[in-house]
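INTERNAL AUDIT FORM
Audit reference: QA-55
Scope: verify that the stored structure record matches its stored sequence.
Auditor: D.O.
Record contents follow.
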Amino acid sequence: MNNLLTKKNVFFLGLGGVIILAVMGIVMSMNSCYQNRLCHNFFVSSYTRTFIFCLFLPLPLFLLSLITYKMKDEVFTAWIKFVIWFVPLSMIAILLTPVDDGGSWSIPLKGPVALLTTVLFFTISLIIICWKHFALRKK
């Protein structure tokens, strides 16, 4: 396993993403942001919204890293092998999904795609973690 993908590093990566998402959510919800044209324009831009949608994944990453932190290294290793390929593919899916639908075409929007990838990530991760944890307990 890569030396960068330790339990501690994954935990802090998820925590950092959650903190950034929380701060952006607080700033966006402040009435003063909507009165300030520069602040409002920043959060309305499609690039910022795409970044915010990509930040949906660190929340389950943080929660799941908490779950695996005290478990055996084999459980963490099995889960991180899934994370290594799923998270980049999710980010690409979110980045490539259009912000607005194409009119009469039913093209998925970034929000539902981000939510779907987050739910899939959390669900599959829990299955992998539980499966590996209980498989190791049987030994």
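Auditor finding: record pair retrieved intact. The helical segments are 7-29, 31-35, 37-44, 46-54, 58-69, 73-96, 110-138.
Action required: none
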